[in-house]
Amino acid sequence: MRVGGAVITWEMFKGEFLRKYFPEDIKNKKVIEFMELKQGNMSVADYS
User: Which one Pfam family would you cite for this protein (predicted)?
Assistant: First the structure.
């Protein structure tokens, strides 16, 4: 892909996309939210 004449790789695009739309603080909150999920009496950690 080219933007303004510069070649953009998938890794470059993905990095910029994640920084803009999925910042580190949100990612950390989602990890905590996931680890606190429960089904019945079992947590995610119990399943793994």
Answer: Retrotrans_gag
Asked whether 36 and 43 are in contact (CB, 8 A), the reply is yes
Buried b (16+ CB within 10 A) or exposed e, 34-47: eeeeeeeeeeeeee
Backbone torsion region of residue 40, taken as left when φ is above 0, otherwise alpha when ψ lies between -120 and 50, otherwise beta: left
31-44 pLDDT, tens digit each: 999 888 888 888 87
Q: How far is the C-alpha of 48 from the C-alpha of 34, rounded, in Å? A: 13
Q: Determine if the pTM surpasses 0.85.
A: no
22 with 14: CB under 8 angstroms? no
